From TrEMBL:
Catalytic reactions of this protein: a 1-acyl-sn-glycero-3-phosphate + an acyl-CoA = a 1,2-diacyl-sn-glycero-3-phosphate + CoA
Organism of provenance: Glossina austeni (Savannah tsetse fly)
Similarity remark: Belongs to the 1-acyl-sn-glycerol-3-phosphate acyltransferase family.
Domain Phospholipid/glycerol acyltransferase: 90-207
Protein name: 1-acyl-sn-glycerol-3-phosphate acyltransferase
Keyword Aminoacyl-tRNA synthetase: no
Single GO cellular component term: endoplasmic reticulum
Molecular functions (GO terms): 1-acylglycerol-3-phosphate O-acyltransferase activity
SMART domains, alphabetized: PlsC (SM00563)
Pfam families: Acyltransferase (PF01553)
Organism placement in taxonomy: Eukaryota, Metazoa, Ecdysozoa, Arthropoda, Hexapoda
EC annotation from Swiss-Prot or TrEMBL: 2.3.1.51
Free-text comment on this protein's domains from its UniProt entry: The HXXXXD motif is essential for acyltransferase activity and may constitute the binding site for the phosphate moiety of the glycerol-3-phosphate.
UniProt pathway annotation: Phospholipid metabolism; CDP-diacylglycerol biosynthesis; CDP-diacylglycerol from sn-glycerol 3-phosphate: step 2/3
Length: 271
């Protein structure tokens, strides 16, 4: 156990050293983040076996991930906590940009209530992290088999009302670093309509400090805005397109606003 703790400490130390240089190799920083995240889960795994598939298993890894994120020079600010109702279930929708979204989840996990993440099945096969994800209740879906994915989501949607769970999803379905959101997939909205639960939009500002094309990973600040719930009560399957449009418009407007504010903040950091 001691050697694993040393691995985490070493990863954070290297990450901290890398954060002082905007010229630090892009791939190296991402590798440090990936290895550090895996090491964190590995250390915490023995404590998860006593309550498998319990969302509370992710609380300590989430705290550790937040520290790793800071060590890499990335800070995140969560706003709109007053819009969260922990005593009720719902579908939480988040825009998807990169692997650093894991840090966003780490900031949301302690505040949204009883959370469950929906992720592609490939995540399950990542060393250490995949098993850890299963231990804190991640719902893995096979996107190549649409029927199986829908069945899995339908079963999970029952937990929204029965156990007041919050189902966290990325409605764009893939990573997107553009200045506009991609069209939303319908799966998460089918869940909201089927369970008649509210949709909680969460908008994350653009990662101005991260550029995959230019291979740059600088210090940066991220704004996370939790918006008021959008009611799905009364909607039917035939009206899902209308619900998608309403949600997309609300999140797109906030994304533009939030990203411009984050751009100004990050510009000051890099002067």
């Amino acid at each position: 156990m001691a050697c694993f703790c040393e691995v985490i400490g070493f990863a954070c130390l290297v990450a901290l050293l890398m954060s002082f240089s905007n010229k630090a190799p892009y791939q190296l920083k991402l590798a440090i983040f990936a290895i550090g995240s895996g090491a964190i889960v590995l250390v915490c795994m023995p404590f998860m076996i006593f309550r498998p598939k319990d969302y509370r298993n992710a609380l300590i890894p989430a705290w550790s991930c937040r520290q790793l994120c800071k060590a890499l020079g990335v800070t995140m600010e969560v706003r709109g906590l007053e819009n969260i109702r922990k005593d009720s279930g719902g579908v939480v929708l988040i825009n998807h940009q990169s692997c650093l979204d894991l840090c966003v989840l780490a900031h949301l996990w302690p505040v949204v209530g009883r959370a469950t993440v929906v992720a592609k099945r490939e995540i399950l096969y990542l060393p250490f992290f995949g098993i850890g994800s299963w231990m804190w209740g991640t719902l893995f879906i096979n996107r190549s088999r649409k029927h199986d994915s829908i069945n899995a989501l339908q079963k999970e949607s029952k937990a929204i009302n029965e156990r007041n769970c919050k189902l966290l999803l990325f409605p764009e379905g893939t990573r997107n670093s553009l200045e506009t959101l991609l069209p939303f997939k319908k799966g998460s909205f089918h869940i909201a309509v089927q369970s008649q639960c509210p949709i909680q939009p969460v908008v994350v500002s653009k990662y101005w400090f991260l550029n995959a094309e230019n291979k740059t990973f600088r210090q940066g600040h991220v704004l996370i805005q939790i918006l008021p719930e959008i009611s799905a009560a009364g909607y039917t399957k035939d009206e899902i397109d209308s619900l998608i449009e309403e949600t997309h418009n609300v999140m797109q407007a906030e994304y533009c606003k939030l990203s411009q504010e984050a751009k100004a903040i990050n510009s000051k950091k890099h002067v």
